[in-house]
């Protein structure tokens, strides 16, 4: 048996009365049509908000999905990364070594050698690799220390 397929469609959902800014009279109004994309009998806005609610419910007590741990993960702008060699490709992405990291605010430079510092930073007894730590240690000798998955 084939799974049920939903058709995407567009339809006018609401009629909003909006005052006409060009009119001198505040009585005049224009009808503004709102067109929404539908999936089956539901509009995209509803489905998106419902999906968000379900994810929140399912992950509320999860030890696997930890929003604090995810928020602590350093993030880089694509303009801050210079990609190196292609390490591999799969069905969903390719993996490149990170050849160089240059923070847009210019705060970190590749000045730390492995002999001068430990490989991992420690904050309150926990391993901590923030943006500055990573940007100052993106190479291990002549080799890349980090890689990135890219669509």
Protein architecture, described:
The protein folds into 2 domains: 8-71, no CATH class; 74-150, no CATH class. Helices cover 19% and strands 37% of the residues. It is built from 3 helices and 10 strands. It has helices spanning 44-59, 67-72, 131-136, and strands at 8-19, 29-39, 42-43, 81-89, 94-101, 121-123, 126-128, 139-140, 143-144, 147-150. The strands form 4 sheets. It has a 3-stranded antiparallel sheet. The chain has a 3-stranded antiparallel sheet with strand order 4-5-10. Strand 6 and strand 7 form a beta hairpin.
What is the topology?
Blueprint: E1 8-19, E2 29-39, E3 42-43, H1 44-59, H2 67-72, E4 81-89, E5 94-101, E6 121-123, E7 126-128, H3 131-136, E8 139-140, E9 143-144, E10 147-150
Antiparallel strand pairs: 1-2, 2-3, 4-5, 5-10, 6-7, 8-9
Distance between the termini: 33 Å
What's the helix-strand series?
EEEHHEEEEHEEE
Principal-axis shape equals: elongated
Q: Taking Cα atoms only, what radius of gyration do you get, to the nearest Å?
A: 25 Å
The number of helical segments is: 3
Classification by helices and strands: alpha+beta
Mean pLDDT: 77
Count of individual beta strands = 10
Q: Percentage of helical residues?
A: 10-25%
Largest β sheet strand count, sense and barrel closure:
3 strands, antiparallel
Major sheet: arrangement of strands: 1-2-3
Strand content: 35-45%
How many structural units, i.e. domains? 2
Return residue spans where pLDDT drops below 50 for at least 5 consecutive residues: none
């Amino acid at each position: 048996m084939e799974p049920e397929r939903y058709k995407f469609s567009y339809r006018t959902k609401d009629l909003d009365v909006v005052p006409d800014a060009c009119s001198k009279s505040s009585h005049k109004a224009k009808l503004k049509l709102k067109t929404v994309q539908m999936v089956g009998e539901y509009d995209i806005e509803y489905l998106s908000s419902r999906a968000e609610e379900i994810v929140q419910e399912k992950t509320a007590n999860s030890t696997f999905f930890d929003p604090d741990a995810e928020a602590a993960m350093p993030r880089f702008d694509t303009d801050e990364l210079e990609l190196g060699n292609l390490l591999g490709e799969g069905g969903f992405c390719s993996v490149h070594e990170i050849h160089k990291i240059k923070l847009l605010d210019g705060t970190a430079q590749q000045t730390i050698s492995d002999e001068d510092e430990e490989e991992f930073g420690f904050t309150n007894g926990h391993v901590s690799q923030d943006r500055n730590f990573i940007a100052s240690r993106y190479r291990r000798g002549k080799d890349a220390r980090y890689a990135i998955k890219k669509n």
